[in-house]
Design goal:
single chain, alpha+beta, three-stranded mixed sheet, globular
Length: about 280
C-alpha cells in the first residue's frame, strides 16, 4: 500500500478492510506447531490447516477486520464485530453529536455515535466473549481442526466415488462444493469439458438439471427428518463460454460431526441417484 501511495502520489492513505467474517477464527493456528502437532490431527488436516495459516497470518496488517462469531465462533445469531486497528478510524463511520441532539447529553461513552445504541441486545457480544473465554485458543484449534478433518474426509470419499467430483479440492476450509453425475459419465474428463468446451454446452445444461434434481430429492428427505442438509449454488463459476456451473454444497460446522456424518452425505446422494434412475 505504501508503495502505491508513493507511486501514484496519493494525498491520502487507502484504508484496507479485511472481510474475514469466516476466516478470522483460523488465526488461532498462527503459532500452532504443525511439526509437533499436539492435537494429533491427521496428515491431510495438517496440510489444510497449514495452508489456511499461510493466508490468514497477515490479517493483522489490515486497518479493520469484520468478524462473525455466529459463523466460526459457534455463537447464536447475531454476533458480529467490526474491529479497527486505530481508534481514530472509528470516526470514519461515526455520526456527529450535533446531528443527534437527543443523545450524548452526558458521560464519555457514546456507542450511539457508530452503532444503533439502545436498539440491540447485548446477547451477541456476551455470547462472543463467553465462547472466547470458554474455548480459548486451544479449544478453537480443536474445534476448527475437527471441522476441517471432517470436510477433508468428505472430499476424500467424494473423490473416490465414480459418480461425484469435487470442484474446490484446493479449498482448505469446511466448505465442499461438488457435482453428481448419472451412471456412465467419465467424472475425470467431463468436468474439464464442461468448463472449457463450448460444444459441451447441452451436456452441461443436462448435468446442471440433474444436480438440481439431486438437490431437490435430498432436500425433501432432510425436511422429512432424514438424511442430511445440503445447499446448492446456481453458479459455482462460469464456463469459458459463459454458462453457469451448478454445484451442491456441504458446509460442516457441527463439532459433533463424525465419520458417520460423512457417510450419511454419501448415502443421501446414493438414494437420490437411485430414485432418479427409477423414474
Amino acid at each position: 500500500r505504501d508503495r502505491l501511495v508513493e507511486e501514484f502520489s496519493l494525498d491520502y492513505v487507502p484504508h484496507i478492510h479485511a472481510d474475514a467474517v469466516i476466516g478470522w477464527a483460523w488465526s488461532v493456528f498462527n503459532d500452532y506447531d504443525f511439526d509437533q502437532n499436539e492435537l494429533e490431527f491427521r496428515h491431510r488436516t495438517v496440510r489444510a490447516l497449514a495452508g489456511i495459516r499461510r493466508r490468514i497470518q497477515h490479517l493483522h496488517l489490515a486497518d479493520s477486520v469484520g468478524i462473525d462469531f455466529h459463523k466460526t465462533g459457534f455463537t447464536p445469531y447475531v454476533s458480529s464485530l467490526f474491529l479497527v486497528k486505530n481508534a481514530h478510524d472509528m470516526r470514519l463511520v461515526s455520526r456527529k453529536p450535533e446531528d443527534m441532539p437527543y443523545l450524548f447529553q452526558s458521560g464519555q461513552y457514546h456507542p450511539g455515535q457508530f452503532t444503533l445504541e439502545t436498539t440491540r441486545s447485548g446477547g451477541g457480544p456476551m455470547a462472543a466473549l463467553a465462547n472466547l473465554k470458554l474455548f480459548g485458543k486451544r479449544g478453537l484449534q480443536s474445534l476448527l481442526g475437527h471441522l476441517v478433518s471432517m470436510a477433508e474426509a468428505l472430499r476424500e470419499q467424494l473423490e473416490g466415488h465414480a459418480a461425484t467430483t469435487v470442484l474446490n479440492g484446493e479449498n482448505f476450509g469446511p466448505v465442499t462444493l461438488f457435482r453428481v453425475y448419472p451412471d456412465g459419465v467419465d467424472t475425470f474428463d467431463v468436468p474439464r469439458r464442461e468448463r472449457t468446451e463450448v460444444s459441451f454446452r447441452e451436456k452441461l445444461r443436462e448435468y446442471n438439471r440433474y444436480n438440481h434434481q439431486i438437490f431437490d430429492l435430498i432436500q425433501q428427505e432432510a425436511l422429512s427428518g432424514e438424511g442430511v442438509v445440503l445447499s446448492l449454488t446456481d453458479c459455482y463459476r462460469e464456463t469459458t463460454y459463459g454458462e453457469p456451473i451448478v454445484a451442491l454444497k456441504s458446509y460442516i460446522m457441527s463439532p459433533f460431526s463424525a465419520e458417520d456424518s460423512v457417510h450419511s452425505v454419501l448415502d443421501s446422494i446414493h438414494r437420490a441417484r437411485e430414485r432418479l434412475q427409477d423414474r
